Amino acid sequence: MTSSSLDLAEFLAPGVAADDVPELASLAAARPLLDAFITLFRGSEAEVLMRLLVLREIGRESDAPRWSPDALRARFTYLDPVKLETVLKRLRDNALLAFADDGLYHLSDIGRNAVAALAMLLRFAEEEDAELGFLTAQLAGLQAVGSLTPEALGHLLSKLNDLTWHFEEAIASGSEFNIVAARRRLSANEKWLARGTEILRELLADPDVPFEVAHVAQRIGLAQSRLARADASFQRALNKIEAQRVTLGASGISSSDVSAWLRTLNADKLAAFADDAFALVPEIPLLAGGHELLDRAEAVLSDEVRAQEVDTALPPPDAAEVNSAPETEDLALLQHFARRLGGVSQPASLADVVAGGGFAPASYRLSLLALLADGESSGPADGPVGEFMRLPLEVLFGDTLEAVDEDEIALISAGRVSPRGNPAGNESVPTAPVEKATESGF
Q1: 150, 168, 302, 404: which could form a disulfide with 212 (CB 3.0–4.6 Å)?
Q2: 402 is in which domain, residue-wise?
Q3: What's the pTM?
Q4: Does 342 lie in the same domain as 237?
Q5: Same domain, 235 and 338
Q6: With b meaning 16 or more CB within 10 Å and e meaning fewer, what string describes 316-338?
Q7: How far is CA 32 from CA 6, 100, 373, in A?
Q8: Domain annotation covers residue 397
Q9: What is the domain count for the chain?
Q10: Residue 342 in domain
Q11: How confident is the model at residue 246 (pLDDT cuts 50, 70, 90)?
Q12: Mean pLDDT, to the nearest integer, of 356-375?
């Protein structure tokens, strides 16, 4: 790259000069750094890889950062000597590599910054969905040196909003596979969300933080709160899917199991299922003799047949059976469970509260507790469901599983149900069980 002035006239609208666009000032001021990256990434993919390879290997040696030409040739014996000299010359001509008076090569300041930036990107690229981690690490570094800017915070806010949109789309799709994948993605980013929360807490605790930075930080906090509630939304969506799942006879295999198995097959195996399942039948022309045509003509010319075709009167009305009793939803299990919870006076574990009557009633009770944990605003105002949502109870779900091994339940989420305002509800271990449901399903 040369240091000549930039000619942006062909990119700007008529009558607009580069000085009239403030957004270009910061980029123009960083031209030496931008020239370094242009040098690295201009050309074919093979050329770019070779430049990055040589630059990274030269910068990797920290104890002896200066290299003689012979040492470089010995280090890169697997490269063509002519190509190696071409790469070294290009890096040297564009200020990424310096050639000192003592005849030794070493990285320039710009070259070392470029290598460090690439090393961080490559480190996070090794992890699945690590973009949030990269942005959070950047914020931590900028905060440590006191260089945090609203623009840097804006990148994190944009990523959080993008994740929220992705999770909402997964829930709206109604696809179990999309919801499970989104939930797994949320779990993979939980550590970065926690680290981002720590950064924001330290940032907002500083009384001298600029207003623009504090404003973006508060918006990031709201976005993180929405993501923290996404797991409960995933669970509710999965509960709805569970209620609609179809089981294939008495095999115990559900439609979700079949769909998951089909997703593991490639296109050739899926196409093989169609073998001998379809038959191509050619169109057979009408072959009729005189007798067949005469029979057809008699039916068409018959007055009785024509009268039947012309008669379009509706059949006489018939009295239909009327069911005066409207269909109602059976909420007996909900009402009985609400009465049981009304008697809870001490914190109790989830296993003691929901177990009883088999797996299906226990799963239903656990889904009701998840609904109760979301708060009164998540349910209707009237009816049995509304009364259930107004129960003065605190429901907390943990991140681990505890063993049950009875009543068709092997494991259950750790958690507790406690009266609202009870200080013992904040303890990690429940202190009093409640009476389990009977085998009748209540």
Answers
A1: 150
A2: 332-419
A3: 0.44
A4: no
A5: no
A6: eeeeeeeeeeeeeeeeebbebbb
A7: 13, 20, 56
A8: yes
A9: 3
A10: yes
A11: low
A12: 83
**413 and 362 part of one domain:** yes
What would the pLDDT profile of 26-47 be if each residue is shown by its tens digit?
A: 787 778 778 888 888 888 888 8
Cα separation, 424 vs 427, in Å, equals: 6
- Residue 24's alpha-carbon distances to 5, 8, 9, 42, 333, in angstroms, are 13, 10, 13, 22, 66
Same domain, 138 and 38: no
How far apart, in Å, are the Cα atoms of 319 and each of 313, 327, 331, 434? 18, 21, 33, 54
- Please indicate, yes or no, if residue 427 is contained in any of the structural domains: no
CA 271 from centroid of its chain's CA atoms: 31
pLDDT tens-digit series, residues 151-207:
888 888 888 888 888 888 888 887 878 888 888 888 878 888 888 888 888 888 878
Q: What is the CATH number of the domain that holds 64?
A: 1.10.10.10
- 19-28, 44-53, 232-241, 278-287: which is most confident: 44-53
Would the pLDDT of 324 be above 60?
Answer: no
For position 283, what pLDDT does the model report?
66
| Backbone phi, psi, residue 403, to 5° | -80, 140
Which residues, 6+ apart, have CB-to-CB distance to 120 below 8 Å? 134, 137
Instruction: Tell me: do 98 and 180 sit in the same domain.
Output: no
Structure tokens at 405: 């091994």
Distance CA 240, CA 205 (A): 42
67, 77 in Cβ contact below 8 A?
A: no
